[in-house]
Write a structure and sequence with these properties.
Layout lengths: L15 E2 L7 E2 L6 E6 H7 L4 H5 L5 E3 L14 E3 L5 E5 L2 E2 L21 E8 L3 H4 L6 E7 L7 E10 L3 E12 L2 E12 L2 E2 L5 E2 L2 E16 L2 E17 L8 E18 L4 E16 L10 E18 L2 E17 L9 E14 L4 E12 L3 E15 L2 E12 L3 H5 L14 E15 L2 E13 L2 E6 L2 E6 L3 E13 L4 E11 L10 E13 L3 E14 L10 H4 L6 E11 L4 E8 L7 E3 L13 E2 L4 E9 L1
Parallel strand pairs: 6-9
Antiparallel strand pairs: 1-2, 3-8, 4-5, 6-7, 8-9, 10-11, 10-37, 11-12, 12-15, 13-14, 15-16, 16-17, 17-18, 18-19, 19-20, 20-21, 21-22, 22-23, 23-24, 24-25, 25-26, 26-29, 27-28, 29-30, 30-31, 31-32, 32-33, 33-34, 34-37, 35-36
Length: 621
Amino acid sequence: MTVHAEDMPVYTLDQVVVTANREPEKVIDSNADISVVTAKDIEANHYKSVADAVKQVPGVVIATRGSSSQTYFSDPITINGSTNVVVMVDGMRVNTNGLMGTHSQLGILTNMDSVDHIEVLKGSASTLYGSDAAGGVINIITKKPTDGKVHTTLDLSRASFDGEKYGLYNEGNKDGFFWTIEANKQIQGNFKDGWGRHVINHLNAESFAGKIGYDLGNDSSVTLSYEKYNADYTRPDYGSNDPTKDFGKKDSDRIALQYNARINDRLTNRLSMYQNRYHLQDDYNNAGSSGTTDLRLKTRGISDQLTYTMEGQTIIGGFDLYQDSVPYYAEVAGMQGKHATNLGFYVQDKWDINDRWNVTPGVRVEHNTDYGTRTTPSLTVGYKISDNTNYYASYKKFFNAPSLMQIYYDNYHTIPNPDLDPEEGYTVELGANHIFDDTLSGNISVYRQFAKNLISWGYSSKGTQYLNTGKTINTCVNMSLTKKFSDHLSGTLGYSYFDGDIRNDSRVYMPKHELNVGLNYTDKKFDAYINGRGVMDRYTSTKSSYGVSESKTMKDYSSFWVWDIGADYKITKEATIYARVNNVFDQFYTNIGSSSPSYGPSGTWFAAPGRNYEVGMQYRF
């Protein structure tokens, strides 16, 4: 399905979102820095995973090793420089505690046709979402068919580097029942980077997602969903220039039950139960080596939320209970069987003092089995000077308990550290959302985070382990503009600034400045886009294991631009062909480095693909 000019939203700030306050509201009223990747964005750009979609959002960095987030065991995610990010599907968490470098594998979320939109909340949200939401929240909202019809979409494509993609999506709504079914297969071979080097990067992945629900009337429903991902991959052992092949497997599934009830005109309830399982086998062809991993993770959770609305006031309260466990870790006996349980109670009250001023106090009391009970209050003040302009300021506390990996990891050159203290701190944010006229809207936010007991990998008298390394201050600025030039032409401009200290993964190279530029042309049968990402002054303040500042090793690659173009053409009412070219100018770049201080074509950087192509066809009936 293509996107036509008459379907394009005039105001991006008029989009309805739920993540900022757990209740539907327009972006302009949300008193938070929130970006939205719409279903139309996903269709137009043909994103293959959630990781592909959100890495275009200003302030978000996904340190992908290679061509995608599917061909490695850990791709750190940062929002405003923080790796403490909660990832959710329909408000239910999909994080899995126990992975190295990240708590979520966005690359394995590949069922994109069933995604309605993705909301990216940039800034601390610990009061509503838990201690590990100090950096922000990524909430994937799936589709709920409503038109009473049944639709099916077939998607076939071929791409550079022996790439293939096959997709089937079906949705419907009849007699109160609604459903979505999706299946995908992706194949990819080795690729070339911008230097023309051949990089080991094979992928054979299959995924399935299904959801069935029933409308109970009175805006109430019950929904059962299931998602499955399975992949075999091959990656280089140590950076793109390494000819040694490491083989890996990923096997994950997620099952969830959600009940939404409108009890009366003022009171609603949402009850959710879920289980996430993840199995990783990495470098299994070199059994017994230091890099071999055979790991199983599981998360079970239940949450309940009550929302009470009255004139000028919305009160939200509820609880989250979830347990992360490591049922099996072949190489790290100290982690096997370990678990961490979190129980949190929260309440928030958004109160409209008058037509312009509103205030939102909130508090969360959370108990962690290893780190006791903590309280994280928050306070947000909003000033809506008109229907087109909203200002806000917020103060939010957080604490982030050490992960199971940081506490118990005991393998190769790292020893456990059960004496770690949780990261604690607060964030202060100032922001504004503004609609200039019928064709132009934008927002800006200034964010500062103060944290102590920062956790990072380093050296102690006992050896190499995760340590509390002191205090840090991160400062971020995010800005975006959306402009509709005509009935056919629209554009976006995003800018993010970061100044701070990244220690959780010293190989994540945060850009000090980043620009995101997009231009879209839409007509009845033809759509086209140009997207550009400019990175300037990328750096890290930590040192490598060789004692050489890694910022110096990246001096020749600290700034670059990557441009992508694509087009769709509607042959008939049902059939659409599409083509795209990624990295048009064959730019060499990398999202993540290694501990080696060398650079240049002979270095061991995890390079991104050079220029590559994709052509495909969609058929909808």
